[in-house]
Amino acid sequence: MSLSKPFSEQTVLITGASRGIGAAVAERFAAVGMNVVIHYRESHEAANEVARSCMKHGAKVLTVSADVKSREQIIKMQEKLEQKEMIPDIIVNNAGIAHYGLLADVSEEDWDLVMNVNLKGAFLCSQTFMGAMVRQKYGRIINVSSIWGISGASCEVVYSTAKGGLNAFTKALAKELAPSGVTVNAVAPGPVHTEMMAGFQPEEREAIENEIPVGRFALPDEVASLVYFLALPESGYITGQIISPNGGWLT
């Protein structure tokens, strides 16, 4: 694989980067001085706070708002990045939403929303930006999935299905883009200390922690470190993999 520019001069786009794992990923890349694009949908001030934190490292940072479910808005985002000369060499498809509840109670609207954000969003962003990677014969696409996409979870059927689809998307696209020097991988963490876990009661979180061999949830920074590793030039032989940092919960 040919490296078109030094790693520290590359541009990374992180979707859903205004908080949680996405924010941690943005700061991890900023720490080495990379160009960082912080995508968000509505959390303008939270995204700006992440941007300010990243700029402390001397990184060039841009915040962009777009609905990942909309091709039109993703294309507008692409146009803005082209104007700023920040077309991504690395995409981290992190934007996602959870859904808790029995399948019997799931509406079509719920189903469509979860699928569109978690799966269609990754499709649209990858399709829109991978052309530049193919042309330069180098690139990284890293999808943030979930342990539930591997094992499934009761009362999280919709979310599990969306993340399972994202895992299949990862494996198939990796084979399609491998001849072009572009790797595609997924990070599928177990429970992480983020707002997404807010739907669980304290006793539910404690019960889950007791099932995890290391005895705790992951920190966003720990997931970000794995994303960063997969983006490195020397990780070019790793593609089509679903890697699950889960504290030994699922082996």
From TrEMBL:
The keyword Oxidoreductase applies. Signal peptide: none annotated. It holds the Pfam family adh_short_C2. One of its GO terms (molecular function) is 3-oxoacyl-[acyl-carrier-protein] reductase (NADPH) activity. Residues 10-190 form the Ketoreductase domain. Its EC number is 1.1.1.100. The keyword NAD does not apply. It comes from the Bacteria. InterPro entries: KR_dom, NAD(P)-bd_dom_sf, Sc_DH/Rdtase_CS, SDR, SDR_fam. Keywords: Oxidoreductase. PANTHER family: 3-OXOACYL-(ACYL-CARRIER-PROTEIN) REDUCTASE (PTHR42879), 3-OXOACYL-[ACYL-CARRIER-PROTEIN] REDUCTASE FABG (PTHR42879:SF2). Belongs to the short-chain dehydrogenases/reductases (SDR) family. This is 3-oxoacyl-ACP reductase FabG. The lineage of its organism: Bacteria, Bacillati, Bacillota, Bacilli, Bacillales.
